[in-house]
Amino acid sequence: MKHTISELENIASQVRRDVLRMVHAVQSGHPGGSLGCADFFTALYFEILNHKPEFNMDGIGEDLFFLSNGHISPVWYSVLARSGYFEVSELATFRKINSRLQGHPTTHEGLPGIRIASGSLGQGTSVAIGAALAKKLNHDKSLVYVLTGDGELQEGQNWEAFMFAPHHEVDNLILTVDYNGQQIDGPTEKILSLKSLQNKFEAFGWQVISCDGNNMEEVLKAMHYAKSLTGKGKPIVNLMSTQMGYGVDFMQGSNKWHGAAPNDEQLANALTQLKETLGDY
Amino acid sequence: MKKYTYTEKKDTRSGFGAGLHEAGKRNENVVALCADLVGSLKMDAFIKDFPERFIQVGIAEANMMGIAAGLTIGGKIPFTGTFANFSTGRVYDQIRQSIAYSGKNVKICASHAGLTLGEDGATHQILEDIGMMKMLPGMVVINPCDYNQTKAATLAILEHEGPVYLRFGRPTVPVFTPEDQKFEIGKAWMVNEGTDVTIVATGHMVWRAIEAGEKLAEMGIDAEIINIHTIKPLDEEAILKSVKKTGCIVTCEEHNKLGGLGESVAHLLTTTYLAPQEFVAVNDSFGESGTPDQLMTKYKLDPSDIVAAVQKAISRKTK
């Protein structure tokens, strides 16, 4: 362990503050999923990934991460900045003109840490598979991680990718599904039910694990376990239950905050619930 | 009129297959992907010699484009292979976001483009692909004219860093360009120098333009014929130089008149040097089943159609 659980929880608290302040500043962006995944991103970048913040696009000899549900860019930008990819002060440019921190992540403006554009949903797992295959061709033993939303799994391309990965034994790939049960128009169960994701993935030939994504200890345990399952002929998926808006009482568990920014009063209220641990940007 | 002859007819897709095989020999980072059309794309030689660098994706083109984008991260140079329709319209958003906007070094290699796919009909005969691809910022769009040029183009795009759309076809057509040609992306090839009209042609239409040029010569019309194998970036200098000499232009392509080579030329002329232009292209319609020759005739892409367009363009020149 590079950090204790409580150190990681403190980082996640700061990340949540960053997310809210970024989204509030431009009155746009997606706080719900960002808050729900703050623990996962913190665990990933501060504990799980073997990565190099000096950043090289090809990422030879290091673990790679891809974000398929690009709209939760605020949490990714915060964690990238907090783990040394760029200055935290740059978070203040989020979604503003001439910024490298575009509404959805892109390679186009040269932001360190981003290896593919995402936002139009359903494409990230295919890209991650390609990167994982490149690692195999390069005899590079490091791993490829990808995060998707759950509502996003309604996009058909995912299932092409889910069929491909076990067939081709892409066993250096760890997919995590942000399983929060919410999407813009309402609960996933009502909009277009995913039924049993566990059964679906198992039937496709994946190694399936699960965890509570808002419990740092569980996230770490699950991701370490996922790593131990690599190299055994199967891709791994972690069905990670989270609550949209986690950490702020009036946002938690509701799809209302998928893509809505807090006003001044709501921000002030939210920030009282989240400890400033590393200094606001 | 310079004399062009040929000893054999070959399909341009076989030129791609030969080029891909050679690319695989030259560069160990070349990876080929296919969506269940290995035979149609002539990938067999590559697969035989480099099985570990071939990825059979199955009938899942969206996934193929994403995987190709991912392979570039790690330094691979992926060449995707499927029909032109499934290489573009079916996967436009995947190409747009994961390849073009992300600036990935993917070579999208597309066979069976245009009407000459023949009997399969309009579901497979894409006539809009050049337009879709040229609209993507940073995308290079190439449509070579015969076996040798397609092979040379396949090797040229290996050396180009960035996304490329390479379009070729199914039917056998005369092989008339040199085997050892140097293919320069974005550089027009002068087929015949002339003074009365400029004919620019791409893909399968180049040989037809040569046939038209011979008929025009018999009629006393001296046509300058230019092969535009690269639609984007367009060789504006070559086209302008020629039009300034001849005073009118005819564009020829196996594609919808909307969005194709003709439209790029029209944009060039309206913004720089006004001259009459006629279009030999499909008139904003879908294709249908038939033999390639029947279709080219019905959709007015024959040498006689080029001749008629030339006569019209010349008649529109300011006296």
Automatic annotation (TrEMBL), chain A:
<keyword id="KW-0786">Thiamine pyrophosphate</keyword>
<dbReference type="InterPro" id="IPR005474">
    <property type="entry name" value="Transketolase_N"/>
</dbReference>
<comment type="similarity">
    <text>Belongs to the transketolase family.</text>
</comment>
<dbReference type="InterPro" id="IPR029061">
    <property type="entry name" value="THDP-binding"/>
</dbReference>
<dbReference type="Pfam" id="PF00456">
    <property type="entry name" value="Transketolase_N"/>
</dbReference>
<protein>
    <submittedName>
        <fullName>Transketolase</fullName>
    </submittedName>
</protein>
<feature type="domain" description="Transketolase N-terminal">
    <location>
        <begin position="11"/>
        <end position="272"/>
    </location>
</feature>
TrEMBL record, chain B:
<dbReference type="Pfam" id="PF02779">
    <property type="entry name" value="Transket_pyr"/>
</dbReference>
<dbReference type="InterPro" id="IPR029061">
    <property type="entry name" value="THDP-binding"/>
</dbReference>
<protein>
    <submittedName>
        <fullName>Transketolase family protein</fullName>
    </submittedName>
</protein>
<feature type="domain" description="Transketolase-like pyrimidine-binding">
    <location>
        <begin position="10"/>
        <end position="175"/>
    </location>
</feature>
<dbReference type="InterPro" id="IPR005475">
    <property type="entry name" value="Transketolase-like_Pyr-bd"/>
</dbReference>
<dbReference type="InterPro" id="IPR051157">
    <property type="entry name" value="PDH/Transketolase"/>
</dbReference>
<dbReference type="InterPro" id="IPR009014">
    <property type="entry name" value="Transketo_C/PFOR_II"/>
</dbReference>
<dbReference type="InterPro" id="IPR033248">
    <property type="entry name" value="Transketolase_C"/>
</dbReference>
<dbReference type="Pfam" id="PF02780">
    <property type="entry name" value="Transketolase_C"/>
</dbReference>
